[in-house]
Write a structure and sequence with these properties.
This protein has 7 helices and 22 strands. It is an alpha+beta fold and 529 residues long. It folds into 2 domains: 146 residues, Purple acid phosphatase-like, N-terminal (Immunoglobulin-like), CATH 2.60.40; 308 residues, Purple Acid Phosphatase, chain A, domain 2. A hairpin with a 2-residue loop joins strand 21 and strand 22.
């Protein structure tokens, strides 16, 4: 059992070195973890096993996943843990002092899963704030805040943020701290949570540990290194995350079982060799994310696309645009167009059919599709040639046309695509034929810039005349780091484009709103907010 809530209290203020005021951490208890039929207690006291913080994720109206990983030596491949199962107690309460505990339990943290914990807590009340913590040996974790989804039929406003692309070497994760200060109901992370490259390959703000990741221990080490960041820990502790991956969690620009490069000496020389690398990457990803236990990888696969309904306000259909796609056309070269873009699939048949079912069965006002890569056309070729960004949906035009065609033919209203990947803020209206600007707007796309990837950027709001002239569906652009904060209700979908002006020289940049946009239910097309 946990010690009484008032034993050895420890509180934090709003800073990157502590958790938000109101998320009171608790100190080490004097009572050792009792024996459990599920797992044995450690034979000795672990020194701060909670170096990677805590997280919650995948909220439902009646439940949420609670996550931590025991790692007293976080940069060791085994986290500094013994090679045996350890029992980890958890509890969830209505108050930050844990005077009113409503659920508790014990999980088995196993060495073959990097001593990670994925407690799937059920029996909670909808759209309610909860506080949670873990305990092992004589150590109690910092506290985290979770929030369940609204009840079916509820018209509650939803406040969410979405983010993407955090490169350790290219800048500080300041934007995560500012996002945490907003205390969103939920955060969508749209991929490139970390980067796979060797130490020093991407920049010199901070340095990665180790060489380019290929094996399980290397992926575990890199995930752990990122999780030691105080701003990222804060963001996870304040709000539940719903995550999906892009490429850098595994290998730049990979497609299904095709790696970026065919280099036998780097373990990328064949599909079989890359399958081993992908399996290691997927295993480490699951171990370090607040995902349900049943989603852990099987062989080389991890079932990541999934849906969340936030009452009658929004249905979120989270996609996986890496695991099932065909190889990029034209050797992944950008701004090359041709028939091969109509022969490729982005999602695979099963995921496409699932998305169509999600859209058809939705009874929520807003049909939101969080996914990884640029959905609109990105034409940077003057004249009639449509160009195209072939790692994005331009390279998979048959898949994009299938989605937009389904939206048009079945009169699916209020479709909003959320996107990461490109390290810039963008806003686009979506048409089935981007070369015909007089055709109907069927949906809109909000694209977030990166947390740190690309460094400070130039601060420009102008991508150039060529982009404006060739892409009339594009409404906004900004080259800074940050995230997007959204408030969604029955009648409106409002998006604030949040910006930090520097991430390279220090971790203390202020945040500002560079632009705001709004969608009105039943009225296609974005408008200035």
């Amino acid at each position: 059992m946990f010690p009484p809530h008032d034993r050895n209290p420890r509180s934090g203020s709003v800073s990157r070195r502590g958790f938000l005021g109101g998320l009171a951490g608790v100190g080490a208890g004097a009572v050792l973890l009792g024996s459990s039929p599920a797992a044995a207690a450690p034979s000795r006291k672990l020194t701060d096993p909670f170096t990677l913080g805590v997280a919650s994720g995948d909220p439902l109206p009646d439940g949420v996943v609670l996550w931590t990983r025991l790692a007293p030596k976080p940069l060791d491949h085994d986290g500094g843990m013994p090679g045996r199962i350890v029992g980890v107690e958890w509890e969830i309460a209505l108050d930050e002092k844990f005077a009113d505990v409503v659920r508790r339990g014990t999980e088995r943290a196993a060495p073959e899963q990097a001593h990670s914990v994925h407690a799937d807590v059920r029996g909670l009340e909808p759209h309610r704030e909860y506080f949670y913590r873990f305990r092992v040996g004589g150590e109690i974790s910092p506290a985290g805040r979770a929030r369940t989804a609204p009840a079916p039929g509820s018209a509650a406003e939803v406040h969410f943020a979405f983010a993407s692309c955090s490169n350790w070497e290219q800048g500080y994760f300041t934007a995560y701290r500012h996002m945490a200060e907003e205390r969103p109901d939920v955060v969508f992370h749209l991929g490139d949570y970390l980067y796979e490259y060797s130490a020093g390959e991407n920049g010199d703000v901070r340095t990665h540990e180790g060489d380019e990741m290929n094996e399980l221990g290397e992926y575990r080490q890199r995930h752990a290194q990122y999780k030691t960041d105080a701003d990222l820990q804060l963001a996870h502790a304040v709000s539940p995350f719903i995550v999906t991956w892009d490429d850098h969690e595994t290998d730049n620009n990979y497609a299904n079982l095709t790696p970026e490069n065919n280099e036998p000496d780097e373990g990328n020389g064949s599909e079989a060799e890359f399958a081993k690398r992908r399996a290691a990457a997927y295993q480490a990803y699951w171990e370090h994310m607040p995902l349900r236990r049943f989603r852990k990888p099987v062989d080389t696969n991890l079932p990541l696309y999934r849906g969340f309904t936030y009452g009658s306000t929004a249905r979120f259909s989270v996609l996986d645009s890496r695991q099932y796609r065909d190889d990029q056309p034209y050797d992944d070269e950008s701004q090359v167009s041709g028939p091969d873009q109509w022969r490729t699939t982005m999602l695979g048949e099963e995921q496409h059919a699932w998305l169509e079912k999600q859209l058809a069965e939705s009874r929520s006002t807003w049909n939101v599709v969080p996914q990884q890569i640029y959905f609109a056309s990105m034409d940077e070729v003057a004249g009639e040639d449509p160009g195209g960004y072939n790692d994005g949906w331009d390279g998979y035009r048959a898949s994009r046309d299938r989605i937009l065609g389904y939206v048009e033919e079945h009169a699916i209203d209020n479709v909003v695509v959320l996107t990461g990947d490109v390290h810039k803020h963008w806003v686009n209206d979506l048409r089935r034929d981007f070369e015909q600007p007089d055709t109907p707007v069927l949906a809109s796309e909000f694209v977030t810039t990166s947390i740190s990837s690309g460094g400070d950027g130039d601060g420009s709001n102008d991508p150039g005349d060529l982009v404006w002239n060739e892409n009339p569906h594009t409404k906004y652009y900004c080259d800074r780091r940050g995230y997007v904060s959204c408030r969604v209700g029955k009648d409106t979908f409002a998006a604030d484009y949040r910006v930090v002006d520097y991430v390279e020289k220090s971790a203390d940049a202020p945040v500002r709103t560079d632009a705001s946009f709004v969608l009105e239910a039943g009225k296609p097309g974005v408008q200035p907010g």
